Amino acid sequence: EIVLTQSPATLSLSPGERATLSCRASESVTRNLAWYQQKPGQAPKLVIYDASKRATGIPARFSGSGSGTEFTLTISSLEPEDFAVYYCQQRSNWRCSFGRGTKLEIK
Amino acid sequence: QVQLVESGGGVVQPGKSLRLSCAASGFSFSTYGMFWVRQAPGKGPEWVAFVSPDEMIKYHTDSVEGRFTISRDDSKSTLYLQMNSLRTEDTAVYFCARDRLESLRFPSHYYDFWGQGTLVTVSA
Prior knowledge:
The structure holds two protein chains of two kinds.
Chain A: E1 4-7, E2 10-13, E3 19-25, E4 33-38, E5 45-49, E6 53-54, E7 62-67, E8 70-75, E9 85-90, E10 97-98, E11 102-106
Parallel strand pairs in A: 2-11
Antiparallel strand pairs in A: 1-3, 3-8, 4-5, 4-9, 5-6, 7-8, 9-10, 9-11
Chain B: E1 3-7, E2 10-12, E3 18-25, E4 34-39, E5 45-51, E6 58-60, E7 68-73, E8 78-83, E9 92-99, E10 111-114, E11 118-122
Parallel strand pairs in B: 2-11
Antiparallel strand pairs in B: 1-3, 3-8, 4-5, 4-9, 5-6, 7-8, 9-10, 9-11
């Protein structure tokens, strides 16, 4: 099973700041990686897929980059509604897996 | 708009069975691959099972293989998860989710719409 390691576990920032979240895969997943946003009591929401493609309705301040084993989700200027837990997910084979998440909290 | 509504969760003893349902609306259910994804308290999501649009392909994660079975009834636009021999480690919120692509044989394995989830608690 491919293990995804997310860092940091918690990121404390203020609205307007830039957020950089990392996801490392235990082996190459090429660009088969997605990012999801989850708020308390809600289902996860697809933000980025194929490493860098924004899902429908996702604002341009969200961007994804990376390939192979190292990936980054960047939020260029944080809005209050962006504070949530973010999970990366790989789909390089049908045995998909998720990371443990990064909690993005208001400083 | 796309809606997925799960039901069937509850509290059950180890070794017992439950069947989860997911009623879909707002899209052509029969042309999308569908998934069950679960999330234990305080943990990240975990993919559980996949079924292709024509039900010819079914995958289950190793930890539920032989105990859980995914199925679908396109006439009712409903997805099911039959869960047998439940274990305490199966305790989680169970979500149904739609594949991002409308594909018969090549799902994207990205989940673009999710239900609100149904809680399954396995406890003696």
